[in-house]
Amino acid sequence: MKFGNKLELSFIPSSYWNEPLSGFTLSSKGLNLPTDSNFFILWIPSNVSEEFLSKQITEIFPRIPVKKLLSCKINLALPPLIITHDSQELLSPDYYEVSSCIGRIIPIGPAVKLLFQMEILSNFDRGIKHYSNSIMTWSFLTKLVFELLNKGQFIPSLETNKTKGYHGSWKLLLKSQNDKDRLQTILKRASWSAFCIPVNFIQINGDYKTNGLWHPSYLFSFFIDTIGDYLIRSTLNKMK
User: Fold this and answer.
1) Cβ–Cβ < 8 Å for 130, 192
2) 54, containing H or E segment
3) pLDDT at 125
4) pLDDT tens, 1-44?
5) How many other C-beta atoms can be found within 10 angstroms of the C-beta atom of residue 96?
6) Domains of the chain, residue spans
């Protein structure tokens, strides 16, 4: 499969990378992430090499200290091959290929700061820099989170957890029609690379594939609440 070398950004929830089928591994032995960590990864669909990925990150984000970012491998879903008459394998367009991709991890804190400060135009096709669709998608979502927080559109929430206890968090609210329309616009314009987490793994001719991706509306809503909760807690901790 041939893909471009455009730098992509994906949000990885802890509920995915902790699953064995995610194939998540850190390149540096002896290091571990907290099991409740959500994070972003920068990656390239062509999956050339870690060295090439680092060069691309430096080119697009020169201020990111690439050497300090942890390297990893994780299973992501990629679009199917284009079927031609000469192809010996007919791959149904209902399936996505699952590939172990090389990525660089960006923790939530630095990622939020980077995405919020990015200068991009409101039109997805007219970025000041040639950012990929996935990078612009997560930047627009991050900016929306800050606007919701600025307007005080959040409430406390109490939910049960796996230990039959309770977990408190903050949830953001989309009150106005404008807020809802903005989220819908981001959803409609987001490409597969922004939500390329496979929903399952199906073995076909020895290779793993998936017949679906995590739905962007679920992933984006989870992201909005996660980032909102993170920012509110950070603010409250600074006030102590």
Assistant:
1) no
2) helix 50-60
3) 53
4) 444 568 999 999 999 999 998 999 998 777 889 999 999 999 99
5) 22
6) 8-239
